[in-house]
Amino acid sequence: MQVKSMILVGTLEKFAFLILFIPKTFQLVGKVMIAIGWLFFASIFWIDCKKTAEEILGEAKASPSSVLLLDLGMQKLSSIPEGICSFPNLTKLDLRLNSLTSLPESVGECKNLEQLNLFGNDLTTFPASFSKLKNLKVLLAGNNDLTVLPSELLFLPRIKTLYLDQNKITLTETDVEILASLSELEELDLNLNTGIKTLPSNYGKLKSLARLKKLNIKKTSLKGEDAEKLQAILPNTKIDY
């Protein structure tokens, strides 16, 4: 199949360089002009879906300042390739469904990162340098092996979306302190953390999450009365229980 005409893709606001994973059955002819949100002049550069992470990074480094989005998902990575934060304008990084057990300290060098997808790895902690990602707004860290909330989140006040579903979190008093510090938080997903059995004694501090629109506590071990307690302090939040 050939793609020759203008197409609409999602609701992204802007980008200058997009890395896509496109099956062999598709073919892009040269640079294809697309409309993304309000952007009507951008270029897609075709990268074979079978290329390795190193090859993808190599091609991206040809124009480092133009890279805003980097997708290294489903690459069977056990560690993050060197140079992943060498793109000064990188705002979206996708590392989903790999085999990462840790993140390098160098991840803190991705200072303009706004969205990070770590879903489906084997992470138990985050490095101290994670606290340097001051512009981070979306963190998807579901389906990992976290037992507590990373303390580095205390230094990331701009986070609006936080997915911690399918981990081993028990929701301690310290976890509540960390969550209560995220004053910009709009969506929190704790689904499938079966270790969450009761609300900590300081759960009332979550009242500070005045902007929280959605809280998912499905398939935890919390009871209906716990959901009612949370709803009482978060009257404007939709709680999925």
TrEMBL record:
SUPFAM superfamilies: L domain-like. It comes from Leptospira weilii serovar Ranarum str. ICFT. Pfam families: LRR_8. The chain crosses the membrane at residues 29-47. GO terms for cellular component: cytoplasm. This is Leucine rich repeat protein. The keyword rRNA-binding does not apply. The keyword Hydrolase does not apply. Keywords: Leucine-rich repeat, Membrane, Repeat, Transmembrane, Transmembrane helix.
